[in-house]
Automatic annotation (TrEMBL), chain A:
This is Amino acid/amide ABC transporter membrane protein 1, HAAT family. It is a multi-pass membrane protein. Keywords: Amino-acid transport, Cell membrane, Membrane, Transmembrane, Transmembrane helix, Transport. One of its GO terms (molecular function) is transmembrane transporter activity. The lineage of its organism: Bacteria, Pseudomonadati, Pseudomonadota, Alphaproteobacteria, Rhodobacterales. It comes from the Bacteria. Its main location: membrane. One of its GO terms (biological process) is amino acid transport. The chain crosses the membrane at residues 12-32, 39-56, 62-85, 97-122, 142-163, 184-213, 225-252, 273-296. GO terms for cellular component: plasma membrane. Belongs to the binding-protein-dependent transport system permease family. LivHM subfamily. It comes from Roseovarius azorensis. InterPro entries: ABC_transp_permease (IPR001851), BCAA_transport_permease (IPR052157).
TrEMBL record, chain B:
Residues 1-21 form the signal peptide. Belongs to the leucine-binding protein family. It holds the Pfam family Peripla_BP_6. Residues 22-352 form the Leucine-binding protein domain. The keyword Acetylation does not apply. This is Amino acid/amide ABC transporter substrate-binding protein, HAAT family. SUPFAM superfamilies: Periplasmic binding protein-like I (SSF53822). Keywords: Amino-acid transport, Signal, Transport. One of its GO terms (biological process) is amino acid transport. The keyword Chloroplast does not apply.
Automatic annotation (TrEMBL), chain C:
It is found in: Cell membrane. It is a multi-pass membrane protein. One of its GO terms (molecular function) is branched-chain amino acid transmembrane transporter activity. InterPro entries: ABC_transp_permease, LivM-like. The chain crosses the membrane at residues 38-57, 62-80, 100-119, 126-149, 172-190, 260-285, 297-320. It comes from the Bacteria. Pfam families: BPD_transp_2. This is Amino acid/amide ABC transporter membrane protein 2, HAAT family. Its main location: membrane. The keyword Membrane applies. Keywords: Cell membrane, Membrane, Transmembrane, Transmembrane helix.
């Protein structure tokens, strides 16, 4: 195995991790501030992708498509928060799980009702398509590099938002003591809606970015949702930093597992059997990672005890 | 879960009077969820043929299996116990077929498969009342292997999801491909990101790529592969280049070679009429699955002309004769009741704004599946 | 609680009466539907022990459901092909006998619950939900890619397994068997809720520190509850596989876990008959909403949402009032 291939796979893992971070950041933010576990986060990802595909089909502009994805997901998020989610903050996690499970059913079939049963088309814009040559002779798709950069910019922006701005201070205060900030005159209802819409917009952005290189179809959100939960549990629920570390860990573990495990098994068994066993184990790798982390750190890497 | 569309053969059904006994067909297919597109096409193709036949004594009970095996089994019980259907059809997925077909034929029902053709039902598990109107699962992959030889490929990189149909696909390709393998990868079922696999293809020194990734997996792979600039020729079975999903792949699919037993440009009167009437009725181009649904209905209708399902032996013989005008041209059943048919090589092209396929050759002529020898009946 | 007891009796009677009517009226599919309902209710009863009494929100109970199913599938497929499971160190043959299969199903899912519980119970709250989900996904992917027992295609068993003295292929007899098991499980649950163990378990949910103060370790209590819960759900899995004469990895999927939770909450958490009512409503909704529209999932979602938002004691709570306090 060459060094170039290894580095290319590390980049792939990084790109996957950055993508997961966009999903996980919203989830963990919503949990940290409102104490809400939101299974319907994957539906917001799907809404972002569908909105982007629809607008790109109408206008041909990828930038407009991204804006539409952000707007549609944020709007859907705000709407759901006001109509449904708001009633769930005081409930236990069980009610939240069930109610948001119900929302998944409604969003998925609703989307199929509006857009039909066949996947939609969304493509990489011409100025971001094709591979570029990196130092060392690595051929790497420009679009994936762009995703890495975009994801890191969003991460930096999110950290700055939380550390520096007024709303960030309110979010941190909300995480620390919900009643207190209410008593201090912060409009909690509005704050919650904004935080939920922000998380939704991040998920929508992830859906649109990924939609260009994957299939835009109903049900695309649930696999990503489960991965995002794995990420925030590993990182510690409520911690943005934990989400970033967890996302990169999961992204790298999954990619390198798929790549290296079959190779490793091929040292000791026949190639066909090695690929079968290796890929079976690779598909379980991140769940094993998560179980291990929780056994040694029951509240995740950066979770508060 | 039960989409209880008691669909009649067109509006004519109201006039259903006559001496003949009602024939009841139970169709269990996937009409909701991510895989609904395939089931809808099979249903539409089937109903179109029925409507064109003008027969008023055939009732079709259509139910949605949601792509879940336990639901499919439950619906099958319902079809047999409550609806008392004579013939069953409709299942898209091999795992659902394995759940339903053995039980249904054991209870004396006829089953006509419009899509799934698992090897177990073609070999040791074959049954006199089971007919596959589409293909044995390995067929299109075998044809891809044969095409790769013709195209002069010497070193293929092959990949498929890690589940039985995926393992069969790679086995089918290797059965006919004579060159070497640069690599063999099983991906995760439902995987959507193929960056790691594409990197390995790039590094492998292969001269061609064979893949079997049905549905959304294939869309994702093709988009990412095209963008990676690897540029090796790609071969695959028709499932990833079907009319329903090609529009979602876009330019990334252009020029890709795929193998299929049907194509909309097969030049015979039955097919020309089918493509035109399907387009007129439903406002979209028919897919592979639609053609299979259409052929399944026509096979059934041809047998009904000769015998009633209640006379099982005569009806079985009538089915076996396959005396209907298939959209594929020549059509005959082998000893295990699976098709003996030509498998074509197609290339993805763009007609105006629509992506579609055109035939560029024949990969296998009068192809018989590999399991016919294991079938004892 | 009198109203609830009356309701429970009615539910149990109705569940017996409808299939009997169907038997007389020769509507075998209704019996099949009722059997499915009884089996799903049994799975719910299993989860209710962990979730309702113990407060352990497990999003991984599909693991036990699936293990029970595969216990049946593996044993029966070996019996069907006359090949032993293993001939070393001791010869183990497959079997078509339901009681043996049930014991194996309960044993295997109990062991799995012991291992998963021992690890997962170190966490709590959302972490517990998520780690049980992770274990579910592990089993799911393993079942899909492990070729020996059919992988994603699953395993078909051509003839339903046997029970001494009964013809299990007759729908009404198989229903009677499942109904009897459900009734037995409900009776055991009722005893357990009143036992010292059940009371301690509820107390540990409400205030763990207080239970610890009287010298009971909540961890052990919960582990025992989790194992028992897994065993009941495993038994339901074996019956479900026998109903369909088929097993597949779908039984392990997280949607299955979600649906079992839905039964429990829909009916009413920690209510003895909650899972029965929940499963009944779910099966009926599936059956009748499905007839209304191809997009019936939207309406199913709306009903679920309505129950969560406006009927907090579940359907039983809605009917008899919220006497059991949830916290």
């Amino acid at each position: 195995m060459s060094l170039i291939l290894f580095i290319e796979q590390m980049l792939n893992g990084l790109q996957f991790g950055v993508m997961l971070f966009l999903m996980a950041a919203g989830l963990t933010l919503i949990f940290g501030v409102m104490g809400l576990i939101n299974l319907a986060h994957g539906s917001l990802y799907m809404i972002g992708a569908f909105a982007a595909a629809w607008v790109a089909g109408l206008t041909g502009s990828f930038v407009l498509a991204l804006i539409a994805a952000l707007a549609a997901a944020a709007a859907a998020g705000a709407l759901v928060e006001v109509v449904v989610i708001r009633r769930l903050y005081a409930r236990d996690h069980l009610d939240q799980v069930l109610a948001t499970f119900a929302l998944i059913l409604m969003f998925s079939e609703g989307t199929r009702w509006v857009f039909g049963s066949f996947p939609l088309f969304l493509e990489i814009p011409p100025y971001l398509s094709g591979p570029v040559r990196l130092p060392g002779g690595i051929q790497y798709p420009l679009y994936r590099l762009a995703i890495i950069v975009a994801g890191l910019i969003v991460a930096a922006g999110l950290f700055a938002l939380i550390a520096r701005t007024r709303i960030g201070i309110q979010i941190r205060a909300g995480e620390a003591d919900r009643e207190m900030i209410g008593a201090l005159g912060v409009n909690i209802a509005a704050l919650y809606t904004v935080v939920f819409a922000l998380g939704a917009a991040l998920a929508g952005l992830a859906g649109a970015l990924i939609g260009a290189i994957q299939s835009v179809q109903v049900g695309m959100g649930e696999p990503v949702l489960i991965l995002a939960f794995v990420v925030i549990v590993i990182g510690g629920i409520g911690s943005i930093k934990g989400a970033l570390v967890g996302a990169l860990l999961v992204g790298l573990t999954d990619t390198m597992g798929r790549f290296l495990l079959p190779v490793a098994f091929a040292q000791v068994m026949a190639p066909a059997a090695a690929t079968a066993v290796g890929s079976a184990l690779a598909s379980m790798a991140i769940y094993i990672l998560m179980a291990l982390v929780l056994i040694f750190r029951p509240r995740g890497l950066y979770g508060v005890a | 879960m039960i989409v209880r569309t008691l669909a009649m053969a067109g509006a004519l059904s109201l006039a259903a009077v006559g001496a003949q006994a009602e024939i009841k067909v139970g169709m269990i297919t996937t009409l909701s969820g991510g895989g609904a597109g395939l089931g809808i096409d099979v249903r539409d193709g089937f109903m179109l043929a029925l409507e064109q036949s003008g027969r008023t004594d055939v009732t079709v009970v259509i139910e949605d299996d949601q792509q879940k095996p336990d639901i499919a089994v439950q619906l099958s019980d319902k079809m047999i116990q409550s609806e008392k259907v004579d013939v069953m059809t409709g299942i898209i997925w091999s795992n659902l077929a394995m759940a339903v077909v053995p039980g249904a034929v054991a209870q004396g029902k006829f089953y006509l498969s419009p899509n799934a053709g698992p090897s177990a039902l073609a070999g040791q598990g074959c049954h006199p009342n089971y007919f596959n109107v589409a293909w044995q699962n390995d067929n299109l992959h075998e044809a891809a292997g044969a095409y790769a030889n013709d195209a002069g490929y010497k070193n293929s990189f092959i990949l498929a999801p890690n589940y039985p149909a995926g393992q069969d696909a790679l086995t089918g390709y290797k059965r006919f491909f004579k060159g070497d393998l640069a690599g063999e990868i099983y991906t995760q079922l439902g995987q959507t990101d193929y960056a790691a696999e594409i990197a390995q293809i790039r590094a492998s020194g292969a001269d061609s790529v064979f893949f079997f990734l049905p549905g959304g997996m294939g869309i994702s792979f093709l988009k990412q592969y095209a963008d990676s600039g690897v540029g090796l020729p790609v071969v695959g079975p028709a499932f990833s280049f079907d009319q329903g999903i090609l529009q979602a792949v876009g330019d990334a699919a252009l020029g890709v070679v795929n193998t299929s037993q049907w194509s909309k440009d097969i030049d015979n009167p039955a097919n020309v009429a089918f493509v035109a009437s399907f387009q007129e009725k439903y406002g979209r181009l028919p897919s592979l699955y639609a053609s299979q649904g259409f052929d399944t209905a026509n096979l059934l209708l041809s047998a009904l002309e000769v015998a009633e399902p209640s006379d099982a032996d005569a009806f079985r013989e009538a089915l076996r004769a396959a005396d209907f005008d298939s959209t594929r041209g020549d059509f005959a059943f082998g000893a295990n009741h699976h098709p003996i048919q030509d498998i074509y090589v197609r290339e993805v092209i763009k007609e105006g704004d629509i992506y579609t396929n055109k035939i560029i050759g024949v990969a296998l002529k009068d192809h018989v599946d590999a399991y016919v020898g294991e079938c004892k009946m | 609680m009198r109203a609830e007891t009356l309701l429970n009796a009615c539910v149990l009677l109705a569940l017996a009466a409808v299939p009997l009517w169907a038997w007389v009226a020769d509507e075998p599919f209704t019996i099949t539907l009722a059997t499915r309902l009884a089996i799903l209710a049994l799975a719910g009863v299993g989860l209710n022990l962990a979730l309702g009494l113990g407060g352990l929100v497990s999003l991984g109970h599909a693991v036990f459901f699936g293990i029970g199913g595969y216990a049946m599938g593996v044993l029966a497929s070996h019996a069907q092909s006359y090949t032993p499971l293993t001939d070393w160190p001791v010869l183990i043959e497959g079997t078509k006998s339901m009681p043996v299969i049930w014991l194996v199903a309960m044993g295997a899912s109990g062991l799995a619950a012991l291992a998963i519980g021992a690890l997962s119970l170190r966490t709590s709250g959302v972490y517990f939900i998520m780690i049980t989900l992770a274990f579910g996904q592990m089993f799911y992917y393993f079942a899909i890619s492990w070729p020996a027992y059919g992988g994603e295609d699953g395993l078909s068993i051509y003839v339903r397994n046997g029970f001494p003295g009964l013809n299990t292929l007759d729908p009404i007899q198989f229903f009677a068997l499942c109904y009897a098991i459900l009734a037995l499980a409900l009776w055991a649950m009722a005893r357990l809720m009143r036992s010292a163990f059940g009371l301690a378990l509820v107390a540990a949910r409400q205030n763990a520190a207080r239970v610890e103060a009287v010298g009971i370790a909540p961890y052990r209590l919960r582990l025992v509850a989790f194992v028992l819960s897994g065993m009941i759900t495993g038994l339901a899995g074996a019956l479900f596989a026998d109903l369909n004469r088929f097993v597949s990895p779908v039984m392990f999927s997280w949607q299955t876990s979600g649906e079992i939770i839905v039964f429990v909450i829909l009916g009413g958490v920690a209510r003895l008959y909650g899972p029965v009512v929940g499963a009944a409503v779910f099966v009926l909704l599936e059956h009748f909403l499905g007839g209304l529209s191809e997009f019936w999932h939207i309406w199913l979602g709306a009903v679920l949402l309505g129950v969560v938002l406006f009927a907090r004691g579940g359907i039983i709570g809605l009917v008899v009032g919220r006497e059991v306090r949830r916290d």
